[in-house]
Amino acid sequence: MLTDVEIAQSAKMKPIREIAEKVGLEEDDLELYGKYKAKISLEAMTKLKNNKDGKLVLVTAINPTPAGEGKTTTMIGLSQALNQLGKKSIVAMREPSLGPCFGVKGGAAGGGYAQVVPMEDINLHFTGDIHAITTANNLIAAMLDNSIQQGNPLDIDTRQIVWKRCVDLNDRALRHIVVGLGGKVNGVPREDGFDISVASEVMAILCLATSLEDLKARAGRMIVAYNHAGEPVTVDDIQATGAVTLLLKDAIKPNLVQTLDHTPVFVHGGPFANIAHGCNSVMATTLAMKLGDYAITEAGFGADLGAEKFLDIKCRQAGLKPDAVVIVATVRALKMHGGVAKKDLGEENLDALRKGIENLEKHIENIAKYHLPSVVAINAFPTDTEAELQLLNEICQSKGVDVAISKVWEKGADGGIELAEKLLDVLENKEADFTPIYDLDVSIADKIKTIAKEIYGADDVTFTKKVMNKMKKYEAQGLGQLPICVAKTQYSLSDDPTLLGRPEGFKVTIQDLIPNTGAGFLVAISGDIMRMPGLPKAPAAINMDIDENGKIVGLF
Questions:
Q1: Catalytic residue flag (residue 142)
Q2: Fewer Cβ atoms within 10 Å of its own Cβ: the N or the C terminal residue of the chain?
Q3: Which of 126, 163, 381, 506 does the annotation list as catalytic?
Q4: 409 catalytic, yes or no?
Q5: 8 Å CB contact between 289 and 56
Q6: The one catalytic residue among 37, 39, 55, 94
Q7: Which of the residues 60, 65, 72, 73 is marked catalytic?
Q8: One of 39, 71, 253, 488 is an active-site residue; which one?
Q9: CA quadruple 287, 291, 292, 296: dihedral, nearest 10
Q10: Which residue in 126, 266, 272, 301 is the catalytic one?
Q11: Which one from 102, 194, 272, 409 is the annotated catalytic residue?
Q12: What is the full per-residue pLDDT of the chain (556 aa) written as tens digits?
């Protein structure tokens, strides 16, 4: 059996000009990055503003497990299948971070015969967008420290600096550091730290901006520190806004690539959904809607994270109204949620499956709370039995949701026809009336409680004293009407990664609250979540290499 990289390397790609032409883009609309990649010019996006919007479909999933769910693969295969049925479908997805690529999670370009190519480029550097974000983030950090060094005219309290440096790698040693050591000429000593680049607020503003002007305004509003009077100090205040925007002038433009069967794909932005808002850029999603009859997009991890943030943050800010949701699951992952060890997942176990399906049921119920119709996609494995699939189908049908078996990894577009047809039926016969789960004018605490109780199923929320003080402070500063971006574990509906399935009787603890005023939300840190991951005992990087002919090996 061929690996994902071997399948990708055997692909016969079309020149990106031809892919662009399929969706009505002209050569002058493109900024070419070689033969098979291009950015879309800002002028082209302005030109398309009056185009009619296509249907918007979100692909999400159950809480992830080590058994894998295949959300991105399913999204890509679904779009391929829609095009095979004669529909005009375009994918809008996130760019992979180098951290997971070299760590344990792997890339994010799909798999098998439902992949986006050139896969190696997309997973390794791509068009440099994340590097631009890293540089912009660290320019802000450098100018902030320089302002303090040069007499501290803004009276910045070095104990209240909230801006961290970043790097797009998993490097736990950088989580907590001290800078400015070595004497007066080397700066003012203070505690600092690194986040992974995709958790930077710069990534968030790039993904939520609707234009270069909007990006610049968002950049200027970002809070970097507080002065001794407790007042916020922004990027505008340290006079870094223009330079930051300059560094992002190309990164803001969406990237166009293709699937193995030449379906157009916009890959742009890559925030994690457990520590950031987890959605690709508004500009890429809007482009897909303007150019296609069906825009298929995804949001990271389970529906409790990516989908909630897609619906309550991204859609609310951008005025998007999704038409349907696809929830991806596997029999194997559901059995793991039901208590089965990974080594035993190949054996039929209806009792464990029935218990694990409770996790899927909760996500189905949550999507319905947004007044959106859904379809369940079962990413098929050879070990799935007829009895297991029948049980899964019966339970989902009892919830009023159709189930489709997806075999896109194995068969590409052909393996997604059943899912595409059931999605089309839902779009034709079930009405969407998208409504966010909470109103913006309620208190910060009430918004967090609504997410925890309605989406996670928590009994209540515990706020630390520090968070309670911050809520009062932010509401006094006029930030109380911002939406909430909860940073929590992806593995559980709760903030405890060991509570699988559908836990009950738990409380969510909010440890910190961070204002992302440029992105336009407040980040609520729950549990022990970290914004800089670490490498596993055997990182994926160990198996990667390139031979004398330039052929990459060991990349998935």
A1: no
A2: N
A3: 381
A4: yes
A5: yes
A6: 94
A7: 73
A8: 71
A9: -10
A10: 301
A11: 409
A12: 777 778 888 889 999 999 999 999 999 999 999 999 999 999 999 999 889 999 999 999 999 998 778 899 999 999 999 999 999 999 999 999 998 889 876 667 888 899 999 988 999 999 999 999 999 999 999 999 999 999 999 999 999 999 999 999 999 999 999 999 999 999 999 999 999 999 999 999 999 999 999 999 999 999 999 999 999 999 999 999 999 999 999 999 999 999 999 999 999 998 887 878 899 999 999 999 999 999 999 998 999 999 999 999 999 999 999 999 999 999 999 999 999 999 999 999 999 999 999 999 999 999 999 999 999 999 998 889 999 999 999 999 898 899 999 999 999 999 999 999 999 999 999 999 999 999 999 999 999 999 999 999 999 999 999 999 999 999 999 999 999 999 999 999 999 999 999 999 999 999 999 999 999 999 999 988 888 999 989 998 998 888 888 888 877 7
Among the listed residues 105, 362, 447, 488, the single catalytic one is: 105
Query: Rounded to whole angstroms, how far apart are CA atoms 225 and 159?
Result: 9
> Is 73 among the catalytic positions?
yes
Q: Is 506 a catalytic residue?
A: no
- Is 462 part of the annotated catalytic residue set? no
Catalytic residue at 381?
yes
Write down the pTM of the prediction.
Answer: 0.94
β-sheet bridge partners, residue 111: 114
CB 194 within 8 A of CB 165: yes
Does 65 qualify as catalytic in the annotation? no
Instruction: Give the C-alpha separation, 364 to 45, whole Å.
Output: 35
Say which of 44, 92, 225, 273 is annotated catalytic.
273
Query: Distance between CA 263 and CA 86 in Å, rounded?
Result: 12
Handedness of CA 348, 113, 64, 79 (dihedral sign): negative
